[in-house]
Amino acid sequence: MIKLLIADDEALVCIGLQSMLKWDQFNIEIVGIAHNGAQEEEMIDTLRPDIVISDIKMPIKSGLEVAGSVRKKYGRLPLFIMLTSYEEFQYARGAIEVQATDYLVKLELTPEALSESIRRAIGILETYQAMESYPKLVHRGNIQAQRDKFFIRLFNNLFENKNQYLLQKEDLDLDLPGAAYLVCTCRILGPDTVPPRGDKLVALCSSTVQMAKDTLSSVSPCYVTSLDLRNFAVALPVPGTDPRLWMPDIQKLLGDMASVLHNYFNVTIIGAIGFAVEDPYLLRESYLAARKALPAAVKERSFVFFTEGEALAQEHLLFDFSESRSEIRRAFEEMDTRALYTIISRMIEIFDGRSDLLVPATDAACNILYMATSLLADGENIVEQIFENEPEGYRAIYQMHTIEEIAGWLIQFRDGCSNILSTRRQSYKEQVVKNVQEYIKRNLGSKLSLNQVADVFNFSPNYLSHLFSKVAKVNYVEYITEIKITAAKEMMVRGEGRIYEISQKLGYESAFYFSKVFKKVTGLSPRDYMQQIESGTEDVRSH
């Protein structure tokens, strides 16, 4: 069971927390109650709880001091949920510095709020435990990270076609049923008390974005995506494309969110809202409109709406990144560092001295960044490594205001990416194939056509087929067949259904076709195989 420690100097609060929820329903055991900070830290050392609900203000040692000390000793566990009877929001900022998972005001605490906070902590705990249990397993990442990448691709027009968009949307279980959608790009300004770089800034901005998600989603279903450290985008459903149907509501929704974030973190949130589109696949257009209006939002330090009829991308007519996109995609897919170096160098030459190309140059740099994080295994870690010595790391791209700064960013990316990828080519390709194989094993009930799986992983079918055959030493179709027939034999041994039921579970169009494939691979029909199992023939399990 998950071990929980409660720490508060008020006995009634401790009793209330113990009785507020049915803890066994969360698979949680309360292992101790502490009434001051020193006792809390001692009990953490001896009981090693997974989650700690701790008052911030306590005798001897504050909850924040305990959390800071424990974090240095034990790393990211235990998780802390901080409580206070004070409404001053500077305590929230202290909770951020010790990486608390949540901050709750006692006067506002309800079973629902506590339950939501506990569920969030359990989710984080499960992620950490999985990472520690399987430290070498490189998976496609958690669902939220993959959804963020999905929207980044969508906003930046990085899908090859609409079918690829639909397949990834289905794979990530994304539901976009609204009559229409729009994008708001938001920027986090301040506070001056936080250094311009470092862990405190990262913690502040990530916590701000998380609270923006929580605040907005409590009112309306939406998707919030981090663009860089200080910028995030919100995809919001609206009742139609006519702004008269939604403008006042959106203005209030975003204003309320900005007020909450200012109260908690002393930050100012400004943003620009694009127009609404009926097809979510066209959210790129709303995103571009919002980007176009963002300078006005920065100037007014408020939320502004894109003015209908305003030219969307006059500057973009001077440079068309789409011509380079397919070349860069191929260079990333094939780890062709020479081609990547040449393409980016050509772009830098085009931008050199052209201050009128600042907007398209910024968008081109962001597109390259997002392609790297989307197409490369461990892509985000690669770009973080390239910009590890820069203020705000690679996320500073939106903070650049001159063509010279953008060119410098592109040069650093080009050189760093070429150096890192040249040392990783073979191991990277092996990891890509391993990720594809894991995906296949998790989705045996699907047809798993080459085109579909290539779209899920954002590769071209021809490239994935070639790479798979070269690394796995078996072609893609043969591998699918081998894995499905092996799974079918295991199902038969375990008695998991009749032949037609097994064929359906494995995504075959008919039991007849399944039987034909099964006999070709094993030399036996499924019926003969099952009869041999029933008769106890020993060698059937090794066929």
Automatic annotation (TrEMBL):
<dbReference type="Pfam" id="PF12833">
    <property type="entry name" value="HTH_18"/>
</dbReference>
<keyword id="KW-0238">DNA-binding</keyword>
<keyword id="KW-0597">Phosphoprotein</keyword>
<dbReference type="InterPro" id="IPR001789">
    <property type="entry name" value="Sig_transdc_resp-reg_receiver"/>
</dbReference>
<keyword id="KW-0805">Transcription regulation</keyword>
<keyword id="KW-0804">Transcription</keyword>
<dbReference type="InterPro" id="IPR009057">
    <property type="entry name" value="Homeodomain-like_sf"/>
</dbReference>
<dbReference type="InterPro" id="IPR018060">
    <property type="entry name" value="HTH_AraC"/>
</dbReference>
<feature type="domain" description="Response regulatory">
    <location>
        <begin position="3"/>
        <end position="121"/>
    </location>
</feature>
<dbReference type="InterPro" id="IPR018062">
    <property type="entry name" value="HTH_AraC-typ_CS"/>
</dbReference>
<feature type="modified residue" description="4-aspartylphosphate">
    <location>
        <position position="55"/>
    </location>
</feature>
<dbReference type="InterPro" id="IPR011006">
    <property type="entry name" value="CheY-like_superfamily"/>
</dbReference>
<dbReference type="InterPro" id="IPR020449">
    <property type="entry name" value="Tscrpt_reg_AraC-type_HTH"/>
</dbReference>
<dbReference type="Pfam" id="PF00072">
    <property type="entry name" value="Response_reg"/>
</dbReference>
<protein>
    <submittedName>
        <fullName>Response regulator</fullName>
    </submittedName>
</protein>
<feature type="domain" description="HTH araC/xylS-type">
    <location>
        <begin position="434"/>
        <end position="532"/>
    </location>
</feature>
